[in-house]
Specification:
Number of helices: 4
Distance between the termini: 38 Å
Largest sheet: 4 strands, mixed
Strand content: 15-25%
Number of strands: 6
Radius of gyration: 17 Å
Number of domains: 1
Shape: globular
Length: 149
């Protein structure tokens, strides 16, 4: 059973389940990313560099007008979901494209053509780029990257 954390407000009482505590089979790609950032927040004491990690809000369904505005602002197709802007001995930064893992009859998330091209381009520029299937896979990639400092 998932762990329940309670958040109190003066208006009313709310009960929230943290994404990190959900059963893995019920987690969407969104929930995996939320769980990863919950883990990162909890781990900043041991790994202070995680405070600089951020999500790149590049995906999602949008109207044509909103998509046009974002494109004009510089949003590009294929950019990975997460960036840890930390230079190591071998790389300029870490980028992670996070996909939901395969579950029961659902296939794992797929990397699009635009994502493949951007992954190759970011790698050519001296960055470490990984595709992770689930938040735990992404966490392991981050820990390996941090060990290379």
């Amino acid at each position: 059973m998932p762990t329940i954390t309670k958040k109190h407000s003066t208006a009313k009482r709310k009960t929230r389940i943290c994404a990190i505590d959900k059963a893995p089979h019920s987690m969407s790609e969104h929930h995996h990313q939320v769980a990863l950032f919950q883990w990162a927040s909890r781990s900043e004491g041991r790994y202070p560099e995680l405070a600089a990690m951020f999500a790149i809000a590049n995906g999602g369904a949008r109207s044509k007008a909103a998509a046009g505005k974002l494109k004009a602002e510089g949003v590009k197709a294929g950019i990975p979901d997460i960036c840890l802007p930390l230079r190591t001995s071998r790389y300029g930064a870490l980028y992670i494209e996070l996909k939901a893992p395969a579950e029961n009859s659902s296939p794992a998330g797929r990397v699009s053509v635009a994502q493949r091209k951007m992954i190759a381009h970011l790698s050519e520029l001296g960055n470490c780029v990984r595709v992770a299937y689930g938040w735990q896979d992404a966490m392991e990639e981050i820990l390996v990257y941090l060990a290379d400092r």
